[in-house]
Amino acid sequence: MRLRSLLDMTDLGLGLVTGEDELDRFVRWVVTTDMLDPSRYMSGGEFVLTGLQWLTQPADCETFIANLAQAKVAAVAAGDALFGEPPAELAAACRKHRIPLFRVDAQVAFATVTETINRHLSVGRAADLAAILDRHRQLVAGGGLGSVLELVHRTLGTPCWVVSSIGRVVAGTSDELPDAVRAAFLSARRLPHVFSYDGTRYSLFAVDADGTSRIADWFLVFQSDYKDWPDERRALTSELAAVVALERARLDDRQSAEGRLAQELIDLIMSEAKPAEIISRLELTGLGLSERYLAVAATADSGAVRPGEVRAVLREILWDRSPAVGVVDGEAIALVSVGGEQLLDDRIHRAIETLEPGLHSSRLAVGISGAVDGEGLRGAVEEARYARRMAAERNEPTSIVRHDELATHMLLLASVPDEVRRMFRVRLLDPLSSYDKDNRSDLVHTLETFLEVSGSWTKCADLLHLHVNTLRYRIQRIEELTQRDLSRLEDRVDFFLALALR
Predict the structure, then answer these.
(1) Any idea which of 55-59, 147-151, 195-199, 415-419 has the lowest mean pLDDT?
(2) Of 6, 22, 66, 469, which shows the fewest CB atoms inside 10 Å?
């Protein structure tokens, strides 16, 4: 039951004081309270009745409403018996926290309001039960989301779809849906959202608005305006979203054998494993040894988009190519066979850019390697990660760096055998890493900064917040540990390449 339905129950004597824009909220049950902070007894969706006995000073209104807003109640109804009408401070607090405020006529008992609303809720739940069980039965029986949506179509009399964030129609009445609908979902300020395209109205609902970021979520599309539906049909969208969320969870490969093998392959590539071990594990993933591969690395700079969601985005973009995707240290890494799709990197690039409206304040950085064979997987992953780090330095919502934008030294390093690269890195950097670990020093970072400023003592000291003499001591210690001379171009180049191989 939605809040606006209560205004049609004239026998309840309810009047709306503020919150007309929030009347599409659902009511789960009714609670009566006169505590200043009843939030610990709320779980969300309550219609809260209060006689205002807690009101001893104007500031109490802000405290009471703030507590209820935190508990995510549906609305507040204040009785007229004590003050004659809701105080202005109460209405102001409700507007501030976007909580609809009703008034209850002094002649109507709270018990009457509670009994009437609960009776309507019970009737609605009983009427929906058979349909809910039928939809779940269709899903469990193996009919998939297509049969569930067909059932919903017959119930609502309107076409409906489940669509991914990149616009793939997961299931629906037909495969045809304007791409503008996906863009409207990503850019909508609030959901549900009604969108018009070519004279047709579409209603858009998130499948998991509270638990999944917009760019990783699926969404529901109905070819009609949900505001014109009766209450029982509006309630259906929440139940359908729950069914779709279950199906998406079932398809999540992270707990499957395929997903675990993919994660193990990525972990192996990131370790010091020999190429033969990587190829052996590659055979188990089903990618095939005769193929050529691309590596993709991606991160988001905000907790609003979690690493697991970035992983889901990469899988969705490459859903028809069965990629091997894993997460290592917060970075999502995907391996995908090129097959006959020569412009696969273009496709990935375009798909990432279309997600920009759904990022809001987050930024997505992506690196794409060149194509390699099975023995070049580690080099491809390092190339993609290096490209991703370059992308992260750009101040753009979606930043993609491809292999053809990389410096030539990275392309050269990607083609060098794994063992040669490892030994080169170990010989130059391990003495410094060991010294840093044993002495809690910062020689590796000092070396990296020194090379970034082309050996400028003043700039490097400023960046590290050191005295120049302290910097000179550190550089001297680096030269002693590695038997190299940082005044020589050759030695600087060797260190630069070794740092790039980390």
Answers:
(1) 415-419
(2) 469
